[in-house]
Fold this sequence. Notes:
The chain has helices at 12-18, 28-31, 41-54, 70-77, 81-99, 105-108, 155-169, 178-182, 189-200, 207-216, 250-256, 269-290, 293-301, and strands at residues 2-8, 32-38, 61-67, 111-118, 122-123, 126-127, 131-137, 221-225, 230-234, 242-243. By secondary structure, the chain is an alpha+beta fold.
Amino acid sequence: MIARVTREKSGLSDYLEKGIRKDSEYTREQKDNVIPIYGNLEIFRQTEQYLNKEKSYKDNYLHITISYSNEDMLKMDSMSDDEKMAMKKDIAMTYIEHHTSGYDVDNEVIAYAETHQPIIKFEHNKERLEHEHIAIALYNPLNDTKLQTTFYNNSFIDDTLQAYINKKYGLSQPRENKRERQGINADTQIARDRKYYKEELKNIKSNNELIQYFKDNNMRYREVKTKSNQYYKILNSNGKDINLKGKDFEHIHKVTLDKNFVFNEHKNIKDLEKVLSSYYEQRIKQIDKRRSVSTKEAIQDI
């Protein structure tokens, strides 16, 4: 399972209802059997229209698409309809609560989720599998203010959540086929360079060894540091830099990280839960500081 999250301004309500896209000739009724799993589409539509008319937000909602692999679908085929729908509802609610952590979901969040079961199995030579759409309005109806979601706030935490859900339900981890999906294995210069450096750097065991390799070969490089990540980048004059992270460079990536950092896919589910719980505790404090006295009183009254 993999989740894709985007920020958008308008159009999602109509797309979910009608299914109209530039690259598709079919309507929603023709393409999919739609099953709502959380919230109300009409309420989300009214909120989307209100924000476009009355607010000047750059973006008005989050759109999360939950996609499954063929292996995931085989696993779901062995489940009863009730078991499968319970899993899908739990995944949707987990993502809604994650991106709105710190808020009262029942009173400060407007969200909607539905699952699509394909009627048309292939379109433009691509297989269509079951998937979910989750919509979260960037709006707090309790105090008429913008909702502060976790979008792009911490990619490590989003990856942690994805790893947690996949381990919880035994679904496929996206890292296993990410390179194939993105076409990295195609015959490109970047692919050839990655293959070359994979072999060249396979015995690197420390930061010092990696930096010494750069210096010995007169290579331009840069250390990239973010709140959730740290790795080295080989700088090429053609602009096609090589990031020393991912499947071929896990051993390189690890030596550049803090000693307490462990790749999510190698953590057990309890460790993942601890990371998420710690993050949500911080979010609760952060969101509470943003609340006005009147909003706190309204929540207390509710």
